[in-house]
Amino acid sequence: MAFKQLIAALSVVLSLQAAQAAVVKSKRAACSNGASVSDESCCAWFDVLDDIQQNLFNGAQCGAEAHESIRLVFHDAIAISPALEAQGQFGGGGADGSIMIFDSVETAFQANVGLDEIVQLQKPFVAKHNVTPGDFIAFAGAVAMSNCPGAPQMNFFTGRAPATQAAPDGLVPEPFDDVTKIINRVNDAGQFDELELVWMLSAHSVAASNDIDPTVQGLPFDSTPGIFDSQFFVESQLRGTLFPGSGGNQGEVESGIPGEMRLQSDSLIARDSRTACEWQSFVNNQSKLTSDFQFIFLALTQLGQNPDVMTDCSAVIPLSKPIPGNGPFSFFPAGTSIADVEQACASTPFPSLTTLPGPATSVAHIPPPPGA
Ligand SMILES: *[C@@H]1O[C@H](CO)[C@@H](O)[C@H](O)[C@H]1NC(C)=O
């Protein structure tokens, strides 16, 4: 763990040095809107920003279109396998936009169920602004995150050439996969370890189910799906009840509180001895949540790419708003308490949190994006 943190710290130092080197190499430029960017080519992305904030994200909302745009980043990027390549097969291109270019192939994969809608919604912006699908998916994901209060300052680098092949099936983890399979998969994809897997799953703080089970659409994974906070890590640790009618075979076994859905894989990773303490570490620790997610999102968006030849256009991405109220904070939803926690981290007690007042309420649905 200490070694892991050292590596993370070193990576941050290295990426800072790389960023500084990139700044020295390229000339800073001022865009027509007055913004200062590291390279003139970044300026065009401000037009894309204005367009998608208005016409994709319904006025910079952290709603279903934002949630699915974030999910699209992960499902495009993680589809890369050096292990398959070592066997002489094509292992996928990572963050290369293949999920949009070969959407009829990749959105038919079971793990990508429901992503066809956001791909169809994004495609016209790619054509209109003449950018590559890989760059656009990373951009839309970073902008989507910035629409969610509490999110870190998101990075965005350009330079992804269009994918030339569809990724093979079987590389995107599924909700019914076991923990070892998922850990092995992310390790193959980007040499990520089990702690970094937990960092990735922070994205489920701003997420809802989409076509996992068509009878129960748009069920959030925590009670605050419009805020990037640690509630996902609190509520996934609560004792769950079997999801009504699910049969448990779609990977959507449990609900911690009414109206919410818990993926089987999230439930297992929250309780596995390899991952449980890292899971719990995000409770009441917004700064750890944001810094780890900022790191892992950038790493994912560079899978299969050479970061040295990419251009840092992070200055285009807006800063997110702070969490409303007196946040950042973590709480037990009304009607729940420490007694409902299924403690899984053996070395550290669960943080003591206040319970929201009032009767238990149901979490509101978030209808998936309209089919295009
Ligand atoms: C938050 O996490 C950081 C990094 O692991 C740690 O140093 C810090 O003590 C944590 N803060 C709290 C309040 O737990």
From TrEMBL:
Question: Which residues are tagged with the site Transition state stabilizer?
Answer: 71
Q: Where is the active site?
A: 75
Could you tell me what the cofactor note in this record states? Binds 1 heme b (iron(II)-protoporphyrin IX) group per subunit.
Q: Which Pfam families match?
A: peroxidase, Peroxidase_ext
GO terms for MF: heme binding; metal ion binding; peroxidase activity
Q: What is its EC number?
A: 1.11.1.-
Q: Does the keyword Disulfide bond apply?
A: yes
Residue positions binding Ca(2+) 1: 76, 94, 96, 98
Q: Top-level EC class, please?
A: oxidoreductase
Keywords, in A-Z order? Calcium, Disulfide bond, Glycoprotein, Heme, Iron, Lignin degradation, Metal-binding, Oxidoreductase, Peroxidase, Signal
Signal peptide range equals 1-21
Q: Where is the Plant heme peroxidase family profile domain?
A: 101-317
- InterPro entries, per the entry: Ccp1-like, Haem_peroxidase, Haem_peroxidase_sf, Ligninase, Ligninase_C, Peroxidases_AS, Peroxidases_heam-ligand_BS
Disulfide pairings: 31-43, 42-313, 62-148, 277-345
- Where, by residue number, does heme b bind? 204
| Binding residues for Ca(2+) 2 | 205, 222, 224, 229
Query: Mind listing the GO biological process terms from this record?
Result: cellular response to oxidative stress; hydrogen peroxide catabolic process; lignin catabolic process; response to reactive oxygen species
Cofactors needed by this protein, per the record, are:
heme b; Ca(2+)
Similarity comment: family membership: Belongs to the peroxidase family. Ligninase subfamily.
Q: What is this protein called?
A: Peroxidase
Q: Which organism is it from?
A: Phanerochaete carnosa (strain HHB-10118-sp) (White-rot fungus)
